[in-house]
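Final report, Chapter 2: Outcomes

The project's central promise was a pipeline that accepts a single protein chain and returns its three-dimensional structure in a standardized token representation, suitable for archiving and comparison. That pipeline is now operational. To close this chapter, we reproduce one record exactly as it appears in the project archive, with the input sequence first and the structure output second.
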Amino acid sequence: MPRGSSSKRERQYEHIKESAEERGAGTKRAKEMAARTVNKERARSGEAKTASKSSTQGKSASQRGGQRSGGGGGGGAGGETYDQLYAEAKRRNIHGRSSMNKSELKRSLES
């Protein structure tokens, strides 16, 4: 955390870091995620001396509700990855899956 951060931001950093570690992120990655999130929130609220354009415009992470976060499960524009579709096809024992592309896997899983 940068020097001069408020106790609120310190708590927010620790909470985000601990949550990321609980979800399986490594310590280094958890610290990076927490620092980036807190710094962005500081920029949005005018607590930072400098801020990038992307930090001050658009929806905040809390408003987005994870819309741009990673992971599959639909919801996003891309949907599931090829690997996720292939794994589901394998689980359902769909024949010919190894020679299918992403759209073919998707179609075979929908039927």
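Archive annotation: The chain has two domains: 7-56, 77-111.
This record, like all others produced under the grant, will remain available to the consortium after the project formally closes.
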